[in-house]
Amino acid sequence: xxxxxxxxxxxxxxxxxxxxxxxxxxxxxxxxxxxxxxxxxxxxxxxxxxxxxxxxxxxxxxxxxxxxxxxxxxxxxxxxxxxxxxxxxxxxxxxxxxxxxxxxxxxxxxxxxxxxxxxxxxxxxxxxxxxxxxxxxxxxxxxxxxxxxxxxxxxxxxxxxxxxxxxxxxxxxxxxxxxxxxxxxxxxxxxxxxxxxxxxxxxxxxxxxxxxxxxxxxxxxxxxxxxxxxxxxxxx
Length: 236
What we know:
There is one protein chain. The protein is 23% helix and 31% strand. The protein has six helices and 14 strands. A seven-stranded mixed sheet has the order 5-4-3-6-7-14-13, with helices on both faces. Strands 1, 2, 10, 11 and 12 form a five-stranded antiparallel sheet that branches. Strands 8-9 form a two-stranded antiparallel ribbon. A hairpin with a 2-residue loop joins strand 10 and strand 11 (191-192).
């Protein structure tokens, strides 16, 4: 699978930025991921991400670190943070930008350490792929937590993307198991990724999954676009 994300970040870092990453999804027409946005500073981040970074404590694992913007901010605050990504290009950029601790791995293959905070920002829970993988995903995350650890994750309720009727209800097709499941492809220059599954999880669904898997799930803050930040802790 082409490392579309990594290639785009490397070009940007080298000063060769000429186009953005195009995305194609099963829900909508083509969209773009602006590459400069992936290199944003703390002040340029949405309030949800800023809040998560404020709450991060102890030894931190930034899962799906991308260009390392979150990890760099935490590191600059003097915190012990490791950036994890399964893209070699992303990890190389994290290192070039000065992130001191990095891991090249898929999160489900990683079990080398325990952390006080796991960060899954920019809908990091999407790495679950499908909703029916969520329990297994949460169980794996729990194995990476210190006893009093926390998981900080943001996601969105994408029900707003479906047509609304006069009563305020939504027309959600019944040909899929969960409306937040999306299939994506990404394209950068002449390179295209393989299609991959990604899931957006509404808060109630996340909360129910947490209850089933031994977590307490707290809604920390809601955003302006059906998005939210949740804090997960293991039940005592």
